[in-house]
Amino acid sequence: MFEHSLSLDTADAIADAVLEAGRADGLQPLTVAVLDDGGRLKVLKRADGSSVLRPEIALGKAFGALSLGMGGRELARRSQKMPGFMNALSDLAGGLAVPVPGGVLVRSAEGRILGAVGVTGDLSENDEACAVAAITKAGLVADTGDPA
Question: Which top-rank group of organisms is this from (predicted)?
Answer without folding.
Answer: Bacteria
